[in-house]
């Protein structure tokens, strides 16, 4: 109502503003003519009292505040566009210890629960009577069953019990659950859980109820325990796979390398390695057969899950591929005759090279003779031999003293050098002859002196 | 002098650098010294090489790039009887090849003794090469390559296994020696005569000794 009035008043003011001159009992705020002074007074009291002013001023304040907040929001939005400068990392605290504490508490709790459950199960299985009624009594003495009279609903699914939804007791904790919230633990599995083999399977087969009813919580605890047991256990195919890898390593890092070495020697014509090569080859083949057998065993293993089935299939495929590639990579050994032929060819080549070597030297001599004739030819080769010179030693130079012998030889050499116009050599030889003479003279002197004394 | 020079110039070309070196072969008898040098000088090989009397003299020139290296080779007799001659030949030598037979361990021990003797009494700075000859008899080897290689390395020797029969490494070992020999202070034999070679060799060795 007030809003309507305000609206009307505001309309009137607009109107008043349009007609500039207004007369009468006008309200100074809303400029409405009230006709009578009393009416105006009342109106003013009513509409523009102090409270009203306060409300108005509050409204104005709120409006301003609103505006400011809105503006601030806009400013903040603008600020968000700026990229923040990298900040220094403040205080850092590790919560790992806290996490570990919490975790340990939980682990302890679960371990405790599990152990308790298992201990109860052990007790339950100990001296378990075969008769169903006796068995029930036995079960009740081990675990106290909850009194069912006050339990109206299943504590798990909160569905009320009635004739169709009966109460059931968990044999391990004694709590009451409905059929849907319970599970059964077969006796065989129960024995397995407490690491005991079934002493007389026939006894259990004859029983009418070869299983325990458990609440899903106790069932879950036992199941978790089983899973943890299997988590640390390697699947049996791992052992076979390790064996396969061992064989593979031996082939790759030992036998194949040896085989290649021996094979290369055979190709060089070394006949004596044929036996060794055959032995290595048969060793490799044996190992390959082992790998094949092991991969077959993996494939034939009973696999529960699909993933292990595919794994074993993949292992088999990989091994087939590996065996194929390895067998193909092993070259056939050359036969006895082939090796002999290679050796023979090699010998011939060596002989030919020997002969060629001599021929080459002859050629060189011829070449240098040609070079002598062709005076302009340059000496461009990095290494070139000229035709060397050597005098012939006469046999009849024998003497008792090797020094004298040598002097005779040198004299003979000098003669030959002179004949060959090798004057450089003549000079060298003459110098040597002189040295020999001096040496001989010294020696003679020494021997003379020693004989004198 | 000029007359002397003419026939000595290699192939009659303009005389470039000619280096002349005295080289001596040492080693036990019948290890193949003469065969080695005959292969190098004449390119020949005699299956039944007669044993050397005294010391044989041979010359051979090899051309290394622009430098002609002339070896005056003294092939000494290995027999004990002639050992008194050996010092005369290694005394002024700039290079020596000590030869042993790879099929005979004793010759290797004798070669070691020769190396010792050279290091003690020959010209300081002499280039010594160790040659394991008869490489063609590799299957009868009794001196392992590693052993002699290590020995050569420890004593600063050039080392090669050679075969005068197959001519394996023969030229190479002489070439290696020629490369190792200093060629900067060599003389043009045609102009300065022969004697300078030796005297300069003496100078060279002195300087290397003082350093």
From TrEMBL, chain A:
InterPro entries: Rab4/Rab5_effector (IPR052727), Rbsn_Rab-bd (IPR021565), Rbsn_Rab-bd_sf (IPR036531), Znf_C2H2_type (IPR013087), Znf_FYVE (IPR000306), Znf_FYVE-rel (IPR017455), Znf_FYVE_PHD (IPR011011), Znf_RING/FYVE/PHD (IPR013083). Keywords: Coiled coil, Metal-binding, Zinc, Zinc-finger. SMART domains: FYVE (SM00064). GO terms for molecular function: zinc ion binding. Residues 277-304, 419-446 form a coiled coil. The keyword Zinc-finger applies. Residues 148-223 form the FYVE-type domain. This is Zinc finger, FYVE/PHD-type,Rabenosyn, Rab binding domain,Zinc finger, RING/FYVE/PHD-type,FYVE zinc. The lineage of its organism: Eukaryota, Metazoa, Ecdysozoa, Arthropoda, Hexapoda.
Automatic annotation (TrEMBL), chain B:
Transmembrane segments: none annotated. Residues 185-207 are annotated as: Disordered. It comes from the Eukaryota. It holds the Pfam family Ras. The keyword Hydrolase applies. SUPFAM superfamilies: P-loop containing nucleoside triphosphate hydrolases. Keywords: Hydrolase, Nucleotide-binding. GO terms for molecular function: GTP binding; GTPase activity. Gene3D superfamilies: P-loop containing nucleotide triphosphate hydrolases (3.40.50.300). Belongs to the small GTPase superfamily. Rab family. This is Small GTP-binding protein domain,P-loop containing nucleoside triphosphate hydrolase,Small GTPase.
